[in-house]
Amino acid sequence: MFRWRNLNILIKIALLAFNGALMMALVMWGISSWQSNLFSRRAAQEAEALALNDLGDIALGIYNMVRAQDETVQQQVNYNLKTARYVLTQNGVAQLSAERTVAWTAANQYTLQSLPVRLPQMLIGGRWLGENSNPNEVTPIVDEIVALVGGTATIFQRMNEQGDMLRVATNVLTVDGRRAIGTYIPAIDPNGTPNSVVAAVLRGETYQGSAYVVSDWYLTAYEPIYDGNGDVIGMLYVGVRREGVESLRQAVLDTKVGASGYTFVLGAQGDQQGVYLVSEGEQLDGVSVWNTMNADERYVAREIVDAALKLEPGELATLRYRWQSPDETEPQWRISRFTYYQPWDWVIAVTAYESEILAYQDVLQGGRADMLRTLGIAGVLILVLVSGLSVLLARSIAGPINRLAGAAQEVAAGNLELQVDMERGDEAGLLAHSFNQMTARLRGLVASLESQVAERTRDLTQRSAYLAGSAEVGRAVTQILDVESLLSQVVELIRDSFGLYYVGLFLADEEREWAVLRAGTGEAGQKMLSRQHRIRIGDGMIGWSVAHAQPRIALDVGEDAVRLASSELPNTRSEAALPLRSRGRVLGALSVQSAQPSAFDESAIAVLQMMADQVAVALDNARLFSSAQQALDAERRAYGDLTQQAWLATLRARAERGYRADSEGVRPLMTLPALPQGSRAVLSAVSAVPGASASVRFYQEDPYTVVLPLRIREQPVGLVRLQKPQAAGGWGEEELALMSSVVEQMSVALESARLYQDTQDRAQQERLIGEVTSRIRETLDIERMLRIAADELRARLGLERLVVRLGVPEGQEMAE
Fold it and tell me: Which CATH architecture fits 256-357?
């Protein structure tokens, strides 16, 4: 029977060595695969970046070529303008004829709409320029200018006050080969905006740049023509046709972009917005793709133009999109790099198929696969060789592997300080080196994580402690309604809750000149209170905080120029002053001090300020509660006294002293019955019954009798005595509670009845006074008035006799 332990040690070592070699080969293959994958990805990214850079370089090359051509042509335009100005000056002064006029059919060069107009002849040095449209006949001045410098030249005559400029002499040809006289540049463009050329000339300025001349775009220069009075009567033009620079256009078309890429130019604004100015193979020149959507329903031309208009000069942008050329059967992914040349209003773009750019990735992936296959074959060959040498190499291979395995176990168990000392040049040594690097990185990572966790934990612990302290202070201050108790307790509570060195509470005086210390913690606080410590508002941190209603922090008290130091607090290292704000007012400030420097950060101050606002609200509420309580007590005392006096007067006016109800019925009492022996003090020493009114009392010697006081507005006005027969048993809690409720309702009803009676009495008095006064006013005779008053008062008051006397007080005399 085959058993592993029966094999000889050589076979075991050989098999072990073989397996070790196999594992090593697999590990190496895996590492190589991983590294090659990383390299392949990075190489693909670099290749793509290089391809995009190449596209960008091509676009910038064309951009610089256009700019250089533009600068060259612009220099030619400037030279042409100087020459034209010289020729015009040499021919004499420009003026409009006062005698002769010319009929023109003026055509708008944009809309081609015509209108008849009659203008005075334009004279240069007294010579009329003529009305020549035949290019084979000579037109003065303009042909002389063109003969000297080439290009195009035109003299315009101002048509009206608006500034429309009519070509009266030019060598610019129309589409039918005639001189373009009779066409004019309107002062207002078709889109409703002022024409930039005409506007500049009318301001007396020279215009340089691109301009639409009759039917094409030119690099131009315009300047005003003045008459002898200095008025603008026309303008002089020279220009070089922009699209006439065929060498530049051909250079753009000849630019090669990889195997299938190409360059194109789009117009960015105006009438040429989204129009192909230069297209692949000139197939789409002049075609607008502004409203053309691709297969993904994207307006690609719009996206390119909109992005290009936001670029700085020489800046590039990139767009990835699908596009289908006329010779393609389906859309392909493309990547375009583009820039914008503003003087020509050109969006210069270079595009290439994404598949062509990513072809490098396929090459790299193929190379990676070949490399991995080569590594696999090499591994098999190594295994064959190792099998032959396994007996000799078993010990040297097994030993290092065992050491590395043990080290890996220790690292997995948490011993990150372990280093494997193995100076070898083979795979085991390389593996040991990689292992040591891995443990070093793990140590650094763990140390960094522990540091970050500890720091975050400290911050969270401090913030949680501050929030918990703030909540505790908030709960405490809301339960204290006495101002002095609140002041003395809140500073101690804040100091203990936040672990502070000192806490002081200042309140502004009535004149808001001083912040007066009202409470402070510890012996230092008591000393400052005893010497009536105060700070002028505006001075120091406390005064500043009260004046500005904002917190102020001194992270290092030695460096704060505003803080006022106190000899009672020598250990203060950092301090914060927090305004006490309530209902839009600053009541004072809270001084919190720590023995640690930089103890207060923004989050701590936010929590402390929230707590200070709670303290301010509680302090304000305590003040309001105290004032309201005093007013309420005064009102109750005053009303209670009035109520008691009114009931005393009511009781004195009645003969009945009370009422008795028993089995014989209800009858009035003219005198009060004597109380049982030993209970003259109705509320003698007995215990209150739970659940009943605290005023329910028993007689000491008669447990079947109870007395309930009649109280109105907390003032006693009588009592109710209830007595049960002995056979019915003593009074129960529910019975006493019911009787107390009935007596309380009876008190309310009695007070309402008294108030009603008082109201009736006052109404009767008012009615009596009114009737008597009405009778007295029936006469103006004094003697009759006195008689009526005496009769009415005696009759209505039921008097037996009434005397009315006239005179002066004793000891006084009538004035003469």
Answer: 2-Layer Sandwich (3.30)
**Secondary structure of 133-200 in HEC code, one letter for each residue:** CCCCCCCCCHHHHHHHHCCEEEEEEECCCCCCEEEEEECCECCCCCECCCEEECCECCCCCECHHHHH
Q: What is the mean pLDDT of residues 298-321?
A: 90
CA angle 92, 93, 97 (to 5 degrees): 115
Q: Hey, CA dihedral for 271, 275, 277, 283, is it positive or negative?
A: negative
Which residues, listed in sequence order, are joined to residue 263 by a DSSP beta bridge? 350
Report whether pLDDT(77) > 60. Answer: yes
Q: Report the percent of the chain where pLDDT is more than 90.
A: 16
Task: List the domain boundaries for the chain.
Answer: 91-241, 256-357, 462-628, 692-777
| Residues 377, 375: Cα–Cα separation, whole Å | 6
* Fold of the domain spanning 462-628: Beta-Lactamase (3.30.450)
Q: Is the model's pLDDT at 702 over the cut of 70?
A: no
Q: pLDDT, tens digit, for every residue of 200-240?
A: 999 999 988 776 665 566 788 999 999 989 999 999 999 88
Spell out the residues 6+ positions from residue 265 whose beta carbon is closer than 8 angstroms to its own: 252, 276, 277, 278, 279, 346, 347, 348, 349
- As given in the structure block, the two tokens for residue 128 are 């009329």
Q: Residue written as tokens 């409203």?
A: 291
pLDDT value at residue 390: 65
* Edge-to-edge strands, sheet with 705-712: 697-698, 705-712, 715-723
Burial 226-256 (b: 16+ CB within 10 A, else e): eeeeeebbbbbbbbbbbebbeebbebbbebe
pTM: 0.39
Count Cβ atoms below 10 Å from residue 155 Cβ, excluding itself: 27
Topology adopted by domain 91-241 = Beta-Lactamase (3.30.450)
The gap from C-alpha 135 to its chain's centroid, in whole angstroms, comes to 69
**Confidence class for position 677, pLDDT limits 50, 70, 90:** very low
Longest distance between any two alpha carbons in the chain, whole Å: 163
| Lookup: tokens for 188 | 């207002």
Local structure of 126: helix, strand or coil = coil
Of the candidates 139, 165, 171, the residue with the CA atom closest to the CA atom of residue 233 = 165
